[in-house]
Amino acid sequence: MRITHRHLEAFRAVHLAGGFTKGAQLLGISQPSISRLVQQLQQAVGFTLFTRIDGRTVPTAEALALHQGVERSFHGLDEVMQHADNIRHHRVGSLRIVSMPALAHAFLPGVLARFMKERPGVVATLQIERTDALPHWITSQQFDIGFANLPVDKPGIQTELFDEAEGVCVMPAAHSLSAKKFIEPKDLRNVPFIHSGPNGRMQASIRHMFEDAGVHCDVQIETPLAAVACRLVEEGAGVTIVDPFTAHLYERQGLVARPFRPELKFNFGVLFPSYAARSTLVRQFMSAVSEERDRILGRAGAPRSRARGTAKPSSRKAVA
After folding, report:
1. Sheet containing 168-172: which strands, arranged edge to edge?
2. How distant, in Å, are the alpha carbons of 26, 170, 244, 257, 266 from that of 240?
3. pTM for the whole thing?
4. pLDDT, tens only, 1-38
5. Does domain 92-164+268-308 have CATH number 3.40.190.10?
6. Among 9, 169, 252, 268, which is least packed, fewest CB within 10 Å?
7. What are this entry's molecular-function GO terms (predicted)?
């Protein structure tokens, strides 16, 4: 006869309850039913499982040895059920994110850390790559989500505009320009300036803007990383223009940021592999990212993203 889980369940119940009647009550079945199951198990294993001593049901030595193996089996089953519960509530799985430096240095770590605190069984990856290298990682499905400057035009990628991200001028709180509501190129005449941007196009666009205004831009330092530029501002090396997400982090550390005019658009986008379904974990993370974006930019409840095959940048001057 084949031993089933029901046979082991009956044996375990009698052993734990100390009798057939109480064991049957534990399982919610009749006493004859549990007796029949235990009898069938005895026939299958070839030895007696319980005996009567002074009116009590007592497991035999063989039953005690068998019980150890049964408990291991039930413990394994409990682990399986717990794992299934974790999957059902999205507490396990993996989340693979690749991002351009601007968002990976200042914005994403905070969101990801808070997201992971509620999901201790999830394993996450946050890798930093240049925008021009990101499409390869997404189309090869080595990552679930990518953050890059738009436009990205490559088959196999679905893009969404995450935020146009208007540039801001970052300076020390005691700087004379901090009293202004917004900063224009003319305000930065002969002011030590730190050029930053994810690529040469950003720096070139800023230079053209100063040239169009007839203002000499006193570039002291150039760096491709907005976070490095803000650190240099902290050290008194000058002022810089960066995205609002990087600026937000350094405002918390004592710098101030003012809108820059005319507007500079970073055009941050989100990339997904076109031929892979987005998991619930991915959707939940994107919801958390969008909420944090709107909180930082003061746009709570104002959705900004739009899905498309390949996103187009804003019709205004795009510098990303």
Report:
1. 219-223, 193-196, 239-242, 168-172, 255-259
2. 71, 5, 12, 10, 15
3. 0.67
4. 788 888 888 888 898 888 999 989 988 999 999 999 99
5. yes
6. 252
7. DNA-binding transcription factor activity; sequence-specific DNA binding
